[in-house]
Each structure stands twice: as structure tokens, then as C-alpha cells.
Amino acid sequence: MSIVFWIFIFAQSQLGSFILNKLGKDNYRMILKKIIYKSLFINCLFATCLFVSFADAATLRTPHQLEWRGQESLDPISSTRFYYPVQMLYNRLVRQDKIGAPSPELATKWTSNETATEWVFDLRENVKFHNGKELTSADVVATINRILDTKRDAPVRAVLSIIKEVTALNNYKVKFTLNKAHSDFPILLMDYRVKILPVNVDQDKSLLGIGTGPFKLENLNVEGTTNLIANNEYWEGKPKLDGIDLIAIADDSARVQALLARQIDWIGWSGVTSQQLPLFQYNSMFKVDSISTGDWRGIIFKNDVAPFTDPKVRKALRIVADRAEMARLVLGEDGGATTCDTPVWKGDQYRMNLECEQDIDGAKKLLAEAGFPDGLDIDLYTSNTDTYFRPLVEVYQRQAAKANIRIHIKMTPSDSYWNDVWMKKSAFTTVWGQRSADQVLNEVYRSTAQWNESSWGSTDYDQLLDEARLTLDFNSRKKLYIAAQKMLWEEGGSLIPFHLRNHRVMMKNVTIPAVEDFSIRWNLVTKE
Q1: 34 in helix, strand or coil?
Q2: Are residues 267 and 137 in the same domain?
Q3: In angstroms, rounded to a whole number, what is the distance separating the alpha carbons of residues 270 and 503?
Q4: What is this structure's pTM?
Q5: Domain range spanning residue 236?
Q6: Alpha-carbon distance 407 to 409, whole Å?
Q7: What angle do CA 327, 333, 336 make, to 5 degrees?
Q8: For position 89, what pLDDT does the model report?
Q9: What residue stretches are annotated with the Solute-binding protein family domain (predicted)?
């Protein structure tokens, strides 16, 4: 718009020169007086239109990482789900509150029988899908049955496999019957993929993307810009934004430059690194929120590929890490909290508390016992698709060298990383968002889990998780979850050095609730 404005000004100046040259000064003054009055009116009108256009354009522009190289799906249970719109188009039955506890969303309340094998959820009434259809129990039953269908590619099934049957008691009441007791069952329904879809979504594909959430799909262009518009009939109230533009920017540095150039309004869920933070921290055009999260970055060694088949090698590769130094150099001061290879964060009630100092001598001893007295060479694959991947592997490379572990960093294209590298190579970087203990220990490490990225498999571990779900006493249940985490520490193939504080950067005129990602109420986000 500004370019058009200056072209308009230039044209006026050229017109003035033409009149002066052709008609002389006297005629020039007379004609110019008329032109000035008209021009002032046009300019004011034009400037007013510009101002109104910008003032009314409360559309949040944010990047997404193009995780699945254009194969992103609006189906929340797909392994290539389009994460960003999935959060904005749909709702869950249950969501986490500010401290991570279950709180009502599409369900208003829930109760269980004494053995926690049956759960009844009451649904919110008068909730409409984007196409005007009312939400009923039939939609909930159909959604859960889609997840449980073994013919589908649905990684979240590992989370909800405990469900034996789901039935509609009436239009607004749903009953879940479980295979086994689970006293924390509502936590499972907080999963970001358990979004409620219309009942006939598989028969009518045009229904995919139609949810009950605060925004509606206007245009889907995964590799370009996907446009969402406000759902003015949203059950929690009309969104404060007019819309959200989701712009594909696969590279981390490109996302930072886009924000600095004010081409986007928010850096997105990945945040910025401690090295990037000063670019925004002292710039009055931006503001920063730092949020404690259960998000983590890690290095995975696949347990079914030599030499990682040997638990001694796997542990050696993990105990060479100086986690405090890693957190400081990768995340910056106060950028995160160290962890001993457990994905369960410090804000979770089932977290294992363990100290794990760097042990170079111990690593050398384990490698020698495993047949590698001179150390070993490892190709470690990563990319710039995530802010922290490269600094993480570079710090690890230097630390591991002290135990004669020679890390060869292999950089790969950002736009193909999740399809061609993750879970395909024998050693690679990974990223996970915050999850409850029960969910992450089952989804990422249960032997039958689809996203068991380290190929960790242990029947003893699986039995611990099963027993924990059966145990109604909290303290006894906590001991079982801690025992499962200790198994991962002793034998696992996942190096998880820290959980992050997310440095969320946005333009000064944008306000996003300062809570972890899955707790953001998108209808409350503003852009002034």
C-alpha cells in the first residue's frame, strides 16, 4: 500500500512540472490552486483508507515450520497433522489449566465409578461446528472410534488404547468404558490430537477442517500461506483477532529475519535461542515472554541398530553429557532446567528427581566393556528446522570427544528432515512438546507405540506403565512411574539434557497469554 501512495505523490509532482512548463507561471498558479484543494482531499481520503485498512487488519501473521514438506493434514490424528491450524480450528473435551490439571472444554464435568474403569462426561450444550451443526455425543463417539480404528495411521491411539468402548448415553452425555482402571483418565483426553470432529467426516471429506474452535479455515496452502478467519459464533466468545495467517518458513534463521523485518507478528511456538534473544530483547518494537515448559530437545540413538543395540554403549553416550553446560550454551542463562533423560518435566507430579553429573571415566569404561576401547565414530543427523538442533549437536560433539566418541555432524535440508531423517537414521535430533507423564512414557517409549523413535522395547517397562494405571493410590502410582523413568535412565537410547523455557517473541502490539502452548486460549489473543 505504501508503494502505491508514493507513486501517487510522484505523479502529482510530475503533473505540476508539466503545467509550469506548458502554461507559464500565472496560469500555473491559478490551476495549481484548484489542484491543491482537490489533491489535499484525495490525499487525506487515501491516507484515511490506508489507516483504516491497517487499523482493521487485526490478522496475526505467524510462521510454521513446514514439518511434513507439504504433506500436512488437517486431520488431528494423522501422523503428518498440520499442528498450527489443528490447535485453532478444533476443541478437545478436556484441556489443561494454568498448572496443567484437567479443566473443562467441550466437556463441562466428568465422574467415574469406584474402580475408575467407567467414566461419564457431560458435554457443553449449544456448541456449533463451523458449518452450523450442533455438537452432540454422536460426534464424540465417532471421533474416539476413529482414533481406536487399527486400520488408521493414528499415533495417538497409543495414548487412548486403554478405551474399550465409548457410548452415547444421550445427546450430551458420553460414557467411556476402559480395559483397565485409570484414575488419571481425563489427562489422556487433554492430548492435543484428541480434537472433536463432525460425525460424518470420513464420508464427507469437505468436513475435514470444520471444528468448533475459535477460527475457521478460509484457505489452505501448506507451502504458502494458510488463512484462518474468526469464528464469530465461538462458544467462548467472539475472537479478538479478525484472522490468522500461517506462513510456511521452514528455516529457523529465516523466521527470525522475517520477524525483524516485521513480515510476521510472532516468532511461533519454537521461540528464539538465547543467542537470538538480544536481537529483540532491547528493541522497543518487540516484547518477550519467557515461559517454563515441558518442551524438550534430544539426541536419539536407535536401540535396534548397532552399536546402539548394546545398553552399555547407549548409557556411555548419555553420561558424557555435561547437562548444565549444555543448557547454558544452547539455551542461555535461565533458558531451561536440566533433566536426566526423562521426558517428564519438573512441573509434573510424577517427575523422577535424579542427579546426573558428567562421567567421562564411566563412559570410557562402559565403551571398553562393550568392545570399543578406542572409542567409536557416530554420524549424527540434524538440520536447521529447529532453533536448537545445531547448537545442541555442536556442544555434544565437543563434550563426547573427551571420551573418544567422535561425532560427525550431518546437516540435512530443513524441509525434508521429518520425512527423511527422523526415525529413519540411526542417530538424530528430536523435539517434543510438553506432555503428562502417563502420556509421554506410553507414547514415546512403550514397545508397541508408533512414535517409539528410539526403538526402545522392554516388557518390564510396559508392565510398569500398565500397573501404574491400575493403581488407585497416588503415592504407589508415583513410585511406578518413577521406576519406569529410572529404567530409561539405565538402559534407554534418548539423551534428553534439558527442558526449555520458551522465549516467545512478538511485535509490541500483540498479546498472547503467557502460558504454555497447549493452554493458549486463541480467542483471547489480540493485535492492536
Answers
A1: helix
A2: no
A3: 8
A4: 0.72
A5: 215-285+508-527
A6: 6
A7: 45
A8: 98
A9: 102-438
